[in-house]
Amino acid sequence: MSKSKISVIVWNEFQHERENAAVRAIYPDGLHAVIAGALRETPALNPGALPLDVSIATLDQPEHGLTEERLAGCDVLIWWGHKAHGKVADAIVDRVQKRVLEGMGLIVLHSGHFSKIFRRMMGTNCSLKWREADEKERVWVVEPSHPIAAGLGEYFELPYEEMYGERFDIPQPDSTVLISWFEGGEVFRSGCTWERGHGRIFYFRPGHEAYPTYYDKNVQRVIANAVQWAAPRVNIVDVCPNAKALEKLSKKELNFGKVGIKQSQGDIA
Fold first, then answer.
1. Against a cut of 0.70, is the pTM above it?
2. What is the largest CA-CA distance in the chain?
3. What is the structure's pLDDT at 269?
4. Interatomic CA distance for residues 112 and 93, integer angstroms
5. pLDDT digits (tens, 9 = 90+) for 45-95
């Protein structure tokens, strides 16, 4: 695909920020605003990187802000959800899945591991261990040659985060770019990629709403790199045609029709 910009939608259910004063103090305009703002300001490091056209969408908007028209023009969808997974309409999940299979990129953040769309794309429970205890998280870069790791050091640390621990019930990733260690001892596959249909998917673990994680420059760098990596290479709408043969077919003695076997000559022994 040849495009001059990558169209990005940052989707957030936008519930915690409006209902919890502590979360609102960290993200007064919603964590989606911080993610979107960082994307606009973070220079891309990937070779051949394109500038971004970033917009936002939230759960309470008509069609959750993900109309057919908006998704048709979207190259990469970033998804953050937590307490309102069940409120996401199945029709919208179908719509997003269709676009990913056609080539749109999907980046799922933190508690989006339990979102309808991520579980749909993975085909597993996507369950894990968790604990909220203000723990330090050390994020190790285990695939430094991967485009998502561009510009990162050997590791980076977040002083306060929610713990996610193995086993993470996901299918084997195509690549595991990042692995986290937590102060309490657990480890977690915190940066994983897959391809589904023609689209690319990246799951990135950090980002609990009670901590200022999305202000961290390394976290912003990972998301910015992931957008470039996940951007569509093709846009192929699925069809299932009845195809005519390319070559001339030879005449057969038997015709296996839709209603059974029709004999053309004699009996079948």
1. yes
2. 85
3. 46
4. 13
5. 777 889 999 999 999 999 999 999 999 999 999 999 999 999 999 999 999
Give the domain 6-124+190-230 fold: Rossmann fold (3.40.50)
Look at residue 263 and tell me whether its pLDDT is greater than 60.
no
Domain ranges, ordered by start, for the chain: 6-124+190-230
- My answer on whether omega of the bond before 119 falls inside 30° of 0, hence cis, is no
C-alpha 59/C-alpha 169 separation (Å) is 26
Lowest mean pLDDT among 32-36, 149-153, 255-259, 263-267: 263-267
